[in-house]
């Protein structure tokens, strides 16, 4: 808990951490106002690459949280950060929503639309517009030696009423089965690229960053893998029993995100 005092920049998961579906958890709007008053920086971090920054800004504003485009970090930002460093100027065949394609195009990458131009890479996102023909084309490119990578590996995206949507990880499983090949890299949480890009932006030491979230295998693993403070909140999926069962031990466990104020 003492380590919370040193945190200058908090990364918040959204669903299950600050809201549930379309309902803000109690006290959260005031919580963010107080954090700002106390000079703490915070970002909203999500693996869900099917939506763009403006979607999350609008959603947060509707819920009463004043957020700007640059406050939202999506796994698609980790993707362009990775590409800029490892595969600059690459031409991409993208299984992704128009929002993901827009983020990639804005970062200066060429998206190949036709079926005949060989791409440098195949990108797999949470493609809610996925069409069979495109999926088949992606598998053939991968067969022919084009490496593929993914924005994130979550298998299920929880939605209202306890339901879920098959997520990027499920699409990846299909591609892996069809091609027998593993992705080059999965850039979202729990990989390190989101931490790298934030450290670049704010010159933060690792001891000044914390990840606050409800999912052990993404949010908490992300904190632990990257040696930043990991804070599990019990308002979403993760439980203390599950943490024990999985052997994933958060640095801090709090009933709710708003409880952070007691320790800073
Ligand atoms: Mg969550």
Describe it.
35% of the residues lie in helices and 19% in strands. Helix 9 links the parallel strand 13 (229-233) and strand 14 (252-254). The longest helix is centred in the first third of the chain and has 12 residues, at 75-86. The strands form 4 sheets. Strands 5-4-1-12-13-14 form a 6-stranded parallel sheet. A 4-stranded parallel sheet has the order 7-6-8-9, sandwiched between helices. It has helices spanning 28-37, 53-62, 75-86, 98-106, 132-143, 168-179, 193-202, 216-225, 240-246; strands spanning 9-12, 19-20, 23-24, 41-46, 72-74, 91-95, 110-111, 121-124, 148-150, 156-158, 164-166, 209-213, 229-233, 252-254. The chain has 2 domains: 2-47 and 189-263, HAD superfamily/HAD-like (Rossmann fold); 76-179, 3-Layer(aba) Sandwich (Rossmann fold), CATH 3.40.50. The model has no long low-confidence stretch (mean pLDDT 96). The chain binds magnesium ion. Magnesium ion (MG) binds next to loops.
Which keywords apply here?
single chain; 264 residues; alpha/beta; Rossmann fold; 2 domains; six-stranded parallel beta sheet; four-stranded parallel beta sheet; 9 helices; 14 strands; 35% helix; binds magnesium ion
